């Protein structure tokens, strides 16, 4: 077992490095490049401005050099453009360090950088220090700075700020799917061709084939939009929030219910309801079908017939002899929910404007914030290979016959 784990860890390191290199290369050759998001925000960019931006984000270096610095980091040093050092006192999020002379509110002539949302008057700073750039590399948790979504903010801080919302949604949906989907799959297999089996098999097919965004929009239409039109005739129908994680101010969902305060537990549960229904329904549909198929295959085995012929109770045959073997292939699907929990439900979070990891990744891709997108994919790849290793280890727990040599 020890030798097997050592070999798997070596393979994991190779796969992670290979996936990191392939992802970094594909992102850098994508149409528009890493600067496309910045150029969309700043339409009046001169060649000098673009040169300064490239120097600040090291886009003027060769691709292999950039990849090595992104992967393993580099020592600190001043940022220079055309032999001139950039200043560290320029505010965070300022990518254009072109200066202009202007007059402040007191009538004094000052110099300030252009292209920033918030300006700092350089004449008010007693001493200017050269801007120093350093990185520990992604292998040590330094994913750089966001360029568009949250300009100047460390990518790791932005990921961690979205992680709680994703865990709240995905962990709850995963637990509910397991608690509902697995028992349904077991009961459907044991009572094959019954009315219960036909009903939930049909429901599972609908859940597996229906697009996620369509079902999400359908829930918004039924629980958020229609109650507004029916308010005059049926004011007792409650209306659920259609998006976000919590409200900005208090609101009422129905006349006969108390007012909901923004940020309260009741408010967050109401916002969680529809995204949770979407994810639970689709996960439950897939997992119940998988468990049902696996159970039916095991129930046809000779050792199950032998156990029944010996006179064992049906519950003992089902839960001790059948279920344990039927769940062996299910372990693979279960462990792959680990990277899925981190990455979030991209479509669901986008439709419901849920401020989680999936919504962050969608924003990073649509606005060409490559540091966030690269960090997202790299962490997902690491979690995926570790989840597969965990699945191999769990195989030996579920089935003692499996030995790794």
Question: Which features does this protein show?
Answer:
single chain; 405 residues; two-stranded antiparallel ribbon; 6 strands; 6% strand; flat
Number of domains: 2
- Poorly predicted ranges (pLDDT <50, ≥5 residues)? 85-98, 113-132
As for the CATH topology of the largest domain, it is MetI-like fold
State the shape: flat
CATH top level label of the largest domain: Mainly Alpha
Number of helices: 15
Helix content: 55-70%
Q: Which class best fits the helix and strand makeup?
A: mainly alpha
Mean pLDDT: 79
For the biggest sheet, the summary is: 2 strands, antiparallel
Rg over CA atoms: 28 Å
DSSP E strands, number? 6
Topology of helices and strands:
Layout: H1 2-28, H2 36-41, H3 47-56, H4 63-72, E1 74-78, E2 80-81, E3 84-85, E4 99-103, E5 109-113, E6 132-135, H5 155-190, H6 195-209, H7 212-229, H8 265-299, H9 302-309, H10 314-326, H11 328-335, H12 337-343, H13 346-351, H14 357-366, H15 370-398
Antiparallel strand pairs: 1-6, 2-3, 4-5
Helix pairs in contact: 1-15, 5-6, 5-8, 5-12, 5-15, 6-8, 7-8, 8-10, 9-10, 11-15, 12-15, 14-15
């Amino acid at each position: 077992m020890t030798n097997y784990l050592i070999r798997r860890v070596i393979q994991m390191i190779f796969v992670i490095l290979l996936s990191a290199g392939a992802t970094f290369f594909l992102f850098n050759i994508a149409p528009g490049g890493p600067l496309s998001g910045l150029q969309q925000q700043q339409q009046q960019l001169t060649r000098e401005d673009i040169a300064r931006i490239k120097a600040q984000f090291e886009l003027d270096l060769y691709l292999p050099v950039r990849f090595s610095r992104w992967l393993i980091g580099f020592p600190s040093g001043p940022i220079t453009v055309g032999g001139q050092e950039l200043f560290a006192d320029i505010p965070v999020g300022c990518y254009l360090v072109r200066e202009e002379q202007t007059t402040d509110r007191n009538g004094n002539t000052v110099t300030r950088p252009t292209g920033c949302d918030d300006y700092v008057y350089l004449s008010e700073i007693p001493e200017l220090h050269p801007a120093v750039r350093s990185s520990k590399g992604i292998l040590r948790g330094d994913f750089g700075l966001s360029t568009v979504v949250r300009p100047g903010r460390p990518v790791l801080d932005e990921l961690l700020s979205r992680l709680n919302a994703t865990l709240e949604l995905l962990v709850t949906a995963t637990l509910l799917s397991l608690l509902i989907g697995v028992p349904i799959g077991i009961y459907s297999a044991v009572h094959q061709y019954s009315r219960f089996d036909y009903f939930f098999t049909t429901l599972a097919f609908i859940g597996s084939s229906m697009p996620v965004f369509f079902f999400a929009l359908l829930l918004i239409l039924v629980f958020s939009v229609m109650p507004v039109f029916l308010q005059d005739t049926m004011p007792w129908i409650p209306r659920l929030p259609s998006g976000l994680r919590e409200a900005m101010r208090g609101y009422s969902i129905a006349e006969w219910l108390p007012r909901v305060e923004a940020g309260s537990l009741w408010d967050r549960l109401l916002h969680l309801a529809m995204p949770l229904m979407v994810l639970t329904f689709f996960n439950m549909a897939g997992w119940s079908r998988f468990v049902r198929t696996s159970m039916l295959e095991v129930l046809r085995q000779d050792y199950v017939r032998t156990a029944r012929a010996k006179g064992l109770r049906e519950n003992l045959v089902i839960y001790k002899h059948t279920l344990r073997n039927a769940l062996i292939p299910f372990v693979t699907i279960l462990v792959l929910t680990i990277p899925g929990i981190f990455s979030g439900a991209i479509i669901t979070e986008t439709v419901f404007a849920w401020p989680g990891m999936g919504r962050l990744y969608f924003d990073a891709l649509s606005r060409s914030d490559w540091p966030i997108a690269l960090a997202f994919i790299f962490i997902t790849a690491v979690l995926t290979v570790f989840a597969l290793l965990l699945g191999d280890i769990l195989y030996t727990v579920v089935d003692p016959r499996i030995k790794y040599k």
